[in-house]
Amino acid sequence: MTVEVNRARALSDVPHGFLGRRGGVSTGLYAGLNVGTGSDDDPAIIAENRRLAAETVLPGAILLNPYQVHSADCFTVAAPWDASLRPHADAVVTARPGIALGILTADCAPVLLADPQAGVVGAAHAGWKGALGGVTDATLLAMEALGARRDRIRAAIGPCVARASYEVDAAFQRRFEADDPANERFFASGRDGHAQFDLEAYVAHRLAAAGVRTVEAMGLDTYADEDRFYSFRRATHRGEPGYGRQISIIGLPI
Question: What is the largest CA-CA distance in the chain?
């Protein structure tokens, strides 16, 4: 099966792709394009899926993804790193051609960013902790340090858990409202003592509030679309022993 790539109109002039599970070589529980090295999938199969992903988006490039820890930290990539020395961060930026920046997700929001005029790209993993902590703000600052301009940066938010699929408790909602009372608008009423959180809309808001003029939310729900995407939340609700991860990639042509 051909690797399925979801591309954003906002980034049409930059090599990029939000990939799902279609087109990989994993089987069984991880069937598809599982790139999660933290899963129990066969490491050789994961490596082949990573190769397929990179070659689909930016042939010949070196695929690099950080060791994600749900932080607001961003790492600037000046040169390829050894796989055993991956930086602990949840966003990466680069101005070096031939490097494909990758972010792994399984419900969190992948964000790809670019200032093509400056030749600077970035990728961020925005789970609720990182989003609230400012991972997208850190990414913008790192891109500016490489010569990007905030008013030229364009961003796209890929497949993530949608509001209809993301039930949270009252304590979760209070965290966001304590940061900004206006965050109440990202929560819809749910069952007693719970609400439905719109992660995608919140991340889009953070980007726009930071001065990004073009923000594309792709509206792809990882939880609801099992055929196309992996989902940690779906796997947990079903009591499954593991789950795959998809990858989102952006880079500068070689």
Answer: 54
Is residue 174 one of the residues assigned to a domain?
A: no
Q: What whole-number distance in Å separates Cα of residue 83 and Cα of residue 60?
A: 18
Beta-strand pair 74-77/91-94: parallel
The fraction of the chain above a pLDDT of 70, given in percent, is: 100
Count of Cβ atoms closer than 10 Å to residue 180 Cβ: 12
Note whether residue 73 is domain-resident: yes
The structural domain count of the chain equals 1
> For residue 61, what are the β-bridge partners?
none
Closest CA to 77 of 98, 54, 104: 98
In a domain, 169, yes or no: no
Residue with tokens 């600037």: 76
pTM of full prediction above 0.85: yes
The residue range of the domain holding 110 is 5-162+198-247
Who's near 226: CB < 8 A, 6+ residues apart?
Answer: 234
> Under a CB-based contact definition with an 8 Å cutoff, are residues 59 and 126 in contact?
no
- pLDDT tens for 85-125 read 999 999 999 999 999 999 999 999 999 999 999 999 999 99
Q: What is the CATH number of the domain that holds 155?
A: 3.60.140.10
C-alpha span between 179 and 171 (Å, rounded): 13
**Residue 190 maps to a domain:** no
